[in-house]
């Protein structure tokens, strides 16, 4: 059985022989410049010198190129990378990094399983890196390929690109101002149906498991996208709960609203609060994001903008398969 399906109702855009991903709706006449460029970055402090190759190719030529780049990776010591648009009120992008190394074989097996999504969906960027030797292969949301390598490997990259018939160019990608870029649209590519991965949250859960991904942030501080401390904020969480009746395991979603000064504090508050919801028990923390004060639910209208203390304000348990409450739920403070 398939884990996911790509939509078959989306017309494929092809302009000037450039094949676009399904997730991108290009503006007529705007076609990326193909080829590759290289930029040298001089290391500072603990960082070494690095060569970055930016490669732009039509989608029909991209998959074999990415596979060839993977052969530059060592057999062990790899860490996955995933970037997604964020629901968090204080940053635009969530970055997830592998916190434990994996083998190349395991990484590539997972990549091949989800490669159609990686290549077609413009809502995500994905990649992998290794430290010894330093190699990072990263596919950005526009499906431009970034290859960061130790300078000792730059000739190997040049030879690989030449073998694939890709030539160096003065500029690759788009040369557009912000107004022109806004003409380019993005659309979801996954079929939404029971039993299938239908959105980025569900894909994230799979990749968290396969690549040991964790959110790249300090769980003990609370800062915005610019690194500024913002103190105690409102948080929203969705937690997957379960209960075992002896005959079947039933599932529920717990929606939690609370205030905390860090992610770790909020996770601890959620854990303590949901332990009271017997016979339900926590299976997995599915979503946890900071929320804008104006996005709070109606039940929290009286909540002050800056709560005097951290705590849980609202919990709702929605059983998914119990006939006695298919859509209602229970509210608890």
Structure, described:
- This protein has helices at residues 62-70, 104-120, 154-163, 178-181, 200-211, 263-274; strands spanning 14-15, 18-19, 24-25, 35-41, 50-56, 78-85, 93-98, 124-131, 134-139, 145-149, 185-186, 213-215, 233-244, 249-260, 281-291, 311-319, 330-332.
- It is an alpha+beta fold.
- It has two domains: 14-186, no CATH class; 232-332.
- It is globular and about 60 Å long.
Could you list some keywords that capture this structure?
disordered C terminus; 17 strands; 8-stranded antiparallel β-sheet; 6 helices; alpha+beta; 2 domains; 333 residues; 32% strand; 5-stranded antiparallel β-sheet; globular
Write the layout of secondary structure elements.
Layout lengths: L13 E2 L2 E2 L4 E2 L9 E7 L8 E7 L5 H9 L7 E8 L7 E6 L5 H17 L3 E8 L2 E6 L5 E5 L4 H10 L14 H4 L3 E2 L13 H12 L1 E3 L17 E12 L4 E12 L2 H12 L6 E11 L19 E9 L10 E3 L1
Antiparallel strand pairs: 1-2, 3-11, 4-5, 5-10, 6-7, 6-8, 7-12, 8-9, 9-10, 13-14, 13-15, 14-16, 16-17
- Whole-angstrom Rg: 23 Å
**Strand and helix order:** EEEEEHEEHEEEHHEHEEEHEEE
Strand order of the largest sheet: 4-5-10-9-8-6-7-12
Q: Which strand-content bin applies to the residues? A: 25-35%
DSSP E strands, number:
17
Main pleated sheet: 8 strands, antiparallel
> pLDDT under 50 segments (min length 5)?
322-332
| Number of helices, counting only DSSP H or I runs of 4 residues or more | 6
Cα-to-Cα separation, first versus last residue: 41 Å
Which outline best applies? globular
Domain module count: 2
How would you state the average pLDDT, rounded? 92
Oligomerization status of the protein chains: single chain
SS-derived structural category: alpha+beta
What percent of residues adopt helix (DSSP H or I)?
10-25%
